[in-house]
Fold this sequence. Notes:
Rossmann fold; 10 helices; 8 strands; globular; 8-stranded mixed β-sheet; alpha/beta; single chain
Amino acid sequence: MQLLNHCDLDRLYLKTLGAGHKRIAITACDEKSGVSTMAMALAQRHLLAGASVLYVELNSFAPAMTALCDIGLDLENLESPESEATTAASHKSIKATPQTHHLFTPMLVTSSIGDDVVTGVLAPQEQNHILALRNPTTLAKQLDQLGKGFDAIVIDCAPLCSATVENHANQGVPADLVATVADATVVMIQAGVTKAPHLKRSMQLLQQQDITPTAMVMNNQHNPSLGQELIRQAKRLERCLPKLSGWIQHKINNSLLMLPL
């Protein structure tokens, strides 16, 4: 994954998982903002640091992960990295919420847009499971149980402010609710796409839960830099003036315009 080698990913990692936070919720203002891509990259970055990580997908509106195979973990008997014994109280909490047993099926998952593989759980699709997870107490207990076998959890959340979420509110777990049981929250913004009212509304939803984003990531997919835009324009000359087009592109590539801000 190209993002895995990006210096900005390291900066985000050092503010979240690298800073000791164990549950990271990643959401966005709008749909298709790169949440799943960022969540996968952050999870893989933690793996490269020698830690174990679980990818939890809670975006039931637009699932991005595909199951490869069940790895057969017995979550009721998982040992915490910090403790070798599972308490009777935790056993009782699991038995009291059998309706969310599907979250206790970690498996190897992969993104539909890449070849990266991590251990994860798929987004809930059954209505009774979703409604159960909309209870913050239940959600926290399930994440507690999942977290016993891993050093960290990266949660792929639904967007905070989108027509799909607002029109089908009961069909998914709200990102602002997930943020209340996370140690850190990352918000993705699409430069050139996200509108100011959407950003304002997203921040209001988080503020209502007393959540301050740990980081806000600008996705420049639809907002090329000046240098990239000049190269795109220069390529339009390739058909009639190929040498001139190549010379212009070479000059731009070796100029300060191509340096990251």
